[in-house]
Specification:
The complex is a heterodimer of chains A (398) and B (482). Chain A is an alpha+beta fold. Chain A has helices at residues 3-10, 37-50, 102-110, 127-133, 140-143, 146-149, 178-182, 215-227, 252-266, 299-306, 330-345, 358-361, 373-383, and strands at 14-16, 30-32, 54-57, 74-77, 84-88, 93-97, 114-115, 150-156, 162-166, 191-198, 200-201, 205-212, 235-239, 243-250, 271-273, 288-293, 311-315, 319-324, 350-355. In chain A, strand 5 and strand 6 (93-97) form a beta hairpin. The two termini of chain A are 30 Å apart. Classes of the chains: A alpha+beta (398), B alpha+beta (482). The structure holds flavin-adenine dinucleotide.
């Protein structure tokens, strides 16, 4: 039986792929959109039987991240898997399907005064895509990335078997935490179908304290001053060319007192607003996006190296993004990336290119040096011995 | 196996030098169990390395000889995770206790695995920071053990577990290689799965921990209620109001009685339950929320509320709670400490079921728990002089875990699976779930020599390991069957 027919037997929505649906130019032969866990498992099982290379797709907001797949016989589209399976407000826990858009999840949770404390830098992005890329924004300073908030995960393995880890209680150390392993795995270990998250109450009040900083030294000082003060920020963001914004959340009286205190620490001309300043939590503009891990002591050297003209954001957790403009020539990008990695390596930091134009990708190493790559390959071989899951998309050619 | 081990002794001595290899049977006995004393096994050899390179060399020797090995920190684990093997090597990190770096601007510190949890906090306190994971054993347990168990503490309700406070680990892999596993490097988050893997994926030799700013204010109250239900209502109300306390701890009448007998904590007489609620953070936040918590406790029926005026009074409030485990010894000759988790919202139902279990079986159960996150620590009391009593207590303790599973909870919130609970894993997970977890194990440790027999009830066969001897597992399996 042809793969299309075999898939059509187990999934209602299967069709040939179209050129426009290419994953970084690699056109999928087939597209399947399973509507529930059982269908997803069947689709994966048939893919295994037919030896199809599978790439999951959410809302396509990050489909251009990473390297192009070596093959894409089957695109598994998660848009039908969009239910909020469970929200037990009393337990501060919610379970959602992978295709649910993050903003819709946010709205549903907000109806009961709660939130998943992850920013949504890209509108439309889904739960599954967010986990698969480990994406987060300014709130990571206090709340961490998906790995800190996913408490249970349901996946379909390469062989079509459904596996779960974690559960629906926040405190739980039974068995290996595959949730954390799947965060940032780019669809190379299995298909994420459902995730259970730890939630937080929506704070009664928020304030953003924004001030201008003049150069790397000043930026460093501002960040350090806030860190070593008692104001307990939820986020501390640097945005190029020279702004530091501190987010404070809590009860109204507390927040206004802390906002005043923060302004006092930073700059008496600091602006205090209830809503986020323009561009808050967005990736810097550009056609090349570099994700950096840059511990706080590296901020000065980082900004000095980048100079005032390169678009960059940086969060107090020691992570940031650099955006490079389309007019920057590929070898210039390569040169900058090399220098960036040099600076960050001195601080145990890293730089990973999320996306870049094809001609840039051709002359750079997206991932940089990957520690423990041998172990990663061995883990991959266990989960996906046939190397059919998003082949070649990930670090080290995984 | 025996002879492999005997041959290994002199090789390890050559590697480590005088006094770092223990083979004397009497001294070996010191290491026969961890905090779970019901499981014992005298290790074949104990080694006390000083450096990561030595651990790597030891692991390479074990791998070459096909001898299993187990890491041990302070041995306070409560699930038998550090239970040694008679046919193996126990690698003890107690000589690796240096704090290598304190980076205040980076809000992190780098420590060796044997460093005692509280010593990290002591070292960074002068800078206004602390290490947030605070297991009750923090005066003695090691950071390496915390990493392996993903330990939490009373304050993990707000601050999370060890996994949230580890930025990187240097690890000796079961191949005997030293690798760095960062929290946010390129590639898979191997650190994410290493933390909490109970020492089955390798041995950590250096840990970069996140430091947390000491809060401006801490406020603590003790509220006494007539019943467990009323206390439970208060917990739900506090969480429902959007307050995230640093800690909410609860004790029932029997636990209070024990604490009173042991440390005279003078909790309000006649209380059916007491609640300890602690808030921390900036002054203004804490002040506002504290008033609300107090009101919610009264609304739920608290007949007495005590507010700690200073650190000394706070310590007094905590004294009863912190002594509770040991205190139970005052009211019962022996007891089992259970560790299970339930969704907070089903707390009243589950406690009623535990009561019923206790009434049916005649086995007394004292309840102490991290109420904020539904982590129960029922203490199941028995008289070890009475024939059959321990078995009955075991049965009740096991039935409590079943209750946790039935209510969508977990068989362990912080003590780990170890050897103690591996048999319960199939009740919480399917065979496929367990098989999938063990794919990670096979990736890291195909020969199955690194802390074998823990966590999983049945090892997954990892397929042929080219150029390597098979571990003892398949062989042992056969021996069991015949
Ligand atoms: C009175 C008491 C109270 C406790 N309270 C709490 C509590 O509140 N919260 C909580 O979470 N736990 C608690 N525990 C359990 C225990 O203290 C923790 O699990 C602790 O983290 C264990 O640390 P350890 O150094 O004693 O580890 P050990 O018991 O020596 O070992 C535990 C596990 O870690 C592995 N291991 C040790 N070192 C390494 C290493 N370097 N690399 C890899 N694996 C390693 C061992 O192989 C073993 O599997 C308590 C225990 C006691 C006795």
């Amino acid at each position: 039986m042809r793969p299309l027919d075999a898939l059509a037997k187990v999934c209602a929505d299967v069709r040939p792929g179209e050129p426009a649906e290419g994953v970084l130019g690699v056109e999928p032969a087939l597209v399947a959109a399973p509507k529930n866990l059982a269908e997803a498992a069947d689709v994966m099982r048939v893919a295994a039987e037919k030896g199809l290379a599978v790439v999951p797709r959410g809302a396509e907001t990050r489909l251009d991240w990473g390297a192009p797949p070596e093959r894409c016989d089957l695109l598994i589209d998660t848009h039908r898997l969009d239910r909020l399976v469970e929200h037990t407000a009393g337990d501060l826990v919610a379970k959602a399907e992978a295709g649910l858009p993050m903003e819709r999840l946010g709205q549903r949770l907000a109806e009961r005064g709660q939130r998943l404390a992850l920013d949504v830098p890209l509108p439309g992005s889904t739960v599954g895509g967010t986990i698969a890329t480990g994406a987060a924004g300014p709130l990571r300073t206090l709340y961490g990335t998906p790995r800190a908030l996913v408490i249970g995960l349901t996946i379909v393995r390469a062989d079509g078997q459904v596996a779960r880890s974690g559960g629906k209680v926040v405190k739980n150390v039974a068995g290996y935490d595959l949730g954390r392993l799947f965060c940032g795995s780019y669809g190379t270990l299995g298909l994420i179908v459902e995730a259970t998250f730890r939630l937080h109450p929506i704070p009664a009040a928020s304030a953003y304290v924004t001030c201008a900083v003049r150069g790397p030294e000043d930026a460093h000082d501002a960040v350090q001053t806030v860190f070593h003060s008692p104001v307990a920020p939820s986020a501390v963001e640097y945005t190029s060319p020279g702004t530091v914004t501190v987010l404070l959340e809590g009860v109204p009286d507390g927040v206004s007192a802390r906002a005043g205190q923060t302004a006092g620490l930073l700059d008496e001309n600091a602006e205090i607003t209830e809503t986020a300043p323009e561009g808050w939590g967005r990736y810097p503009d550009g056609t090349t996006l570099i994700d950096i891990s840059a511990p706080p002591p590296s901020l000065r050297a980082l900004l000095t190296m980048l100079g005032p003209d390169i678009a960059a954001t940086w969060s107090g957790s020691g992570h940031g993004h650099v955006g490079l403009p389309p007019e920057m020539a590929p070898d210039e990008v390569a040169d900058l990336l090399g220098r960036l990695r040099g600076v960050l390596a001195r601080h145990h930091g890293h730089a990973v290119v999320r996306y870049a134009p094809e001609e840039v990708r051709g002359v750079i190493d997206l991932w940089g040096p990957v520690p423990a790559l041998t172990l990663m390959r061995r883990v991959k071989d266990q989960f996906d011995p046939g190397h059919r899951l998003s082949p070649g998309r990930f670090a080290g050619g995984i | 196996m025996e002879s492999m081990l005997t041959a290994l002794g002199p090789r390890l001595e050559a590697l480590l030098g005088d006094g770092r290899v223990i083979t004397d049977p009497v001294r070996l006995r010191t290491y026969e169990c961890d905090g779970l004393t019901t499981h014992r096994s005298t290790p074949g050899i104990v080694v006390l390395p000083d450096t990561a390179e030595q651990i790597a060399a030891i692991v390479r020797e074990c791998a070459a000889a096909g001898v299993p090995y187990v890491a041990r920190g302070s041995g306070t684990g409560l699930s038998g995770g550090a239970l040694p093997r008679a046919d193996g090597v126990l690698i003890v990190t107690s000589r690796m206790r240096r704090i290598l770096e304190i980076d205040v601007p980076g809000q992190r510190a780098v420590v060796e695995p044997g460093v005692i949890n509280l010593d990290v906090t002591r070292a960074v306190r002068p800078y206004g920071y602390y290490f947030a994971p605070d297991p009750s054993s923090q005066q003695i347990c090691s950071v390496g053990g915390n990493v392996a168990e993903n330990s939490g503490g009373a304050h993990c309700l707000k601050y999370g577990f060890t996994a949230h406070h580890v930025l990187a680990c240097e690890v000796v892999t079961p191949d005997g290689e030293l690798v760095e596993l960062p929290a946010d490097g390129p590639g898979y988050d191997l650190l994410g799965v290493f933390v909490g893997a109970e020492g089955t994926l390798g041995i950590t030799t250096k840990i970069t921990v996140r430091l947390t700013r000491v809060p401006q204010t801490v406020q603590t109250l003790l509220a006494a209620f007539d019943s467990i239900e009323a206390g439970g209502t208060a917990v739900s109300a506090i969480i429902g109001a959007g307050v995230v306390p640093a800690a909410i701890e609860m004790m029932d009448a029997l636990a209070i009685e024990a604490a009173e007998a042991a440390v005279h904590c003078a909790y309000p007489p006649g209380a059916g339950s007491v609640l300890i609620v602690e808030l921390d953070g900036p002054d203004a936040e804490v002040a506002a929320q504290f008033t609300e918590v107090e009101r919610l406790c009264r609304d739920a029926g608290a007949f007495e509320i005590r507010i700690a005026a200073d650190d000394a009074e706070r310590a007094l409030i905590w004294k009863g709670r912190k002594s509770a485990f040991a205190a139970v010894g005052r009211i019962s000759p022996a007891y089992l400490v259970q560790d299970g988790v339930i969704p907070r919202t089903v707390l009243p139902d589950v406690l009623a079921s535990i009561d019923a279990l206790s009434a049916e079986s005649g086995v007394r159960v004292a309840n102490v728990f991290h109420a904020g996150d539904g982590n129960l620590h029922p203490l199941v009391l028995f008289d070890d002089a009475e024939p059959g009593a321990e078995e009955r207590a075991e049965a009740v303790s096991g039935a409590i875990l079943d209750l946790c599973i039935q209510h969508g909870g977990s068989i362990t919130g912080e003590h780990g699976v170890g050897v103690d609970k591996s048999r319960y894993m199939p009740r919480m997970f399917t065979d496929t779930d367990l098989d999938t977890m063990q794919m990670v194990r096979c990736g890291f440790d195909p020969a199955g020599l690194c802390n074998p027999g823990k966590v999983f009830p049945t090892p997954r066969l990892c397929g042929e390991v080219p150029g390597k001897r098979k571990g003892p597992h398949p062989y042992e399996g056969k021996a069991d069957i015949f």
